[in-house]
């Protein structure tokens, strides 16, 4: 039985722990707060890149696998924990798309259902959208998941597994190395030994590796979002029932009728403070798509930090010259989207199984800054 330590209790860290435990590994997951309270909680939950035809093949490969896995993953978590992650596959309406030819080329190549639709179709699906919409694109297979509940379900599943130990409220201060091999981590409460370590620290991954003298090009990008509480509508409908995307902003309906609007893109280092300017910008974007939200209460406004990497391609794999130290970070806006695939890929590599997806495009590209500084 292998002993594995995972740094970071977001969706990717928790899915990695789940898969390793089911493969017979002894797993310790270390999270500085409570599992699922950072970017995994703060996102929207669309189970696809926003405009999937604009992404490179490495991201698309992970996305295709994950999109296929999410329905059964959500159903299994509901059955095993009693917590419903609320996977909904009700499609997405794209409004004001300026590269439709590229979108249809992508859809034909991958066999994805995508169609051009007119006003009658759009308002039959979503009657309370703003007036004047004449056309759009419709992707009927797109799904969404309620990510805070997904996090709750994953945490509950891990707590029920005998091979998993959750260490929450614990800060990792360094990674311990001996002769080029990882031996554990140094934490705020002492050293934890491990034969393998997986860094799933999101936007903070580069900070921790910097302490090892390794530069991993992952940095935080702030995103702010809001949630509206909506009233019941006629005939048992919700004010919004499908994801709607326009001009880079999206509305996501929840099963209880709430509607989420997202999101901003801000370079603000590690500042997660919600701002008044962003609140008003999000509100105006929401009203431009769904005017009835003007009469709905804003229930919550928050910010999270996305882990951005060059070209939007995450780093997944073992760090060069550091045996047993793996990284799974840099998923930018698609951490939740890619989580089932990204966690499966790193687990395949750790267990020396034939990888389901070619790992080459995700190989960590790091630059030594100073000699590695192992724990003493």
UniProtKB/TrEMBL annotation:
The keyword Oxidoreductase applies. Signal peptide: none annotated. Keywords: Oxidoreductase, Thiamine biosynthesis. Pathway: Cofactor biosynthesis; thiamine diphosphate biosynthesis. It holds the Pfam family DAO. SUPFAM superfamilies: FAD-linked reductases, C-terminal domain (SSF54373), FAD/NAD(P)-binding domain (SSF51905). It comes from the Bacteria. Residues 3-349 form the FAD dependent oxidoreductase domain. The keyword Oxidoreductase applies. Its EC number is 1.4.3.19. GO terms for molecular function: glycine oxidase activity. InterPro entries: FAD-dep_OxRdtase (IPR006076), FAD/NAD-bd_sf (IPR036188), Gly_oxidase_ThiO (IPR012727). PANTHER family: GLYCINE OXIDASE, SARCOSINE DEHYDROGENASE-RELATED. This is Glycine oxidase ThiO. It comes from Billgrantia desiderata.
């Amino acid at each position: 039985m292998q002993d594995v330590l995972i740094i970071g209790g977001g969706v990717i860290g928790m899915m990695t722990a789940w898969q390793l435990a089911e493969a017979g590994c002894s797993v310790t997951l270390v999270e500085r707060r409570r599992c699922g309270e950072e970017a995994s909680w703060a996102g929207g939950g669309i189970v696809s890149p926003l405009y999937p035809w604009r992404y490179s093949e490495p991201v698309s490969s992970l996305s295709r696998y994950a999109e296929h896995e999410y329905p059964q993953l959500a159903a299994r978590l509901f059955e095993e924990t009693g917590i419903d992650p609320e996977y909904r596959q009700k499609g997405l309406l794209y409004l004001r798309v300026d590269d439709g030819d590229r979108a249809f080329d992508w859809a034909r190549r991958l066999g994805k259902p995508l169609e051009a639709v007119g006003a009658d179709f759009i308002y039959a699906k979503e009657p309370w959208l703003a007036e004047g919409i004449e056309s759009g694109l419709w992707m009927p297979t797109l799904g969404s998941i309620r990510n805070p509940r997904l996090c709750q379900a994953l945490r509950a599943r891990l707590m029920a597994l005998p091979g998993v130990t959750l260490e929450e409220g614990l800060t990792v201060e360094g990674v311990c190395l001996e002769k080029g091999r990882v031996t554990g981590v140094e934490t705020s409460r002492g050293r934890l030994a491990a034969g393998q370590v997986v860094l799933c620290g999101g936007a903070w991954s580069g900070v921790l590796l910097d302490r090892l003298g390794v530069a991993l090009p992952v940095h935080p990008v702030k995103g702010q979002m809001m949630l509206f509480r909506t009233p019941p509508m006629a005939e048992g409908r919700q004010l919004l029932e499908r994801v709607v995307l326009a001009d880079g902003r999206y509305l996501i309906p929840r099963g209880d009728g709430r509607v989420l609007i997202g999101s901003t893109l801000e370079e603000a280092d590690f500042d997660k403070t919600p701002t008044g300017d962003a609140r008003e910008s999000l509100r105006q974007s929401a009203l431009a798509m769904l005017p009835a939200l003007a009469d709905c209460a804003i229930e919550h406004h928050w910010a999270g930090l996305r882990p951005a990497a060059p070209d939007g391609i995450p780093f997944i794999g073992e760090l060069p010259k550091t045996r047993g130290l793996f990284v799974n970070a840099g998923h930018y806006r698609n951490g939740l989207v890619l989580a089932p695939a990204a966690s499966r890929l790193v687990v395949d590599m750790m267990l020396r199984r034939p990888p389901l997806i070619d790992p080459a495009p995700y190989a960590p590209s790091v630059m030594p800054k100073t000699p590695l500084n192992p724990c003493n």
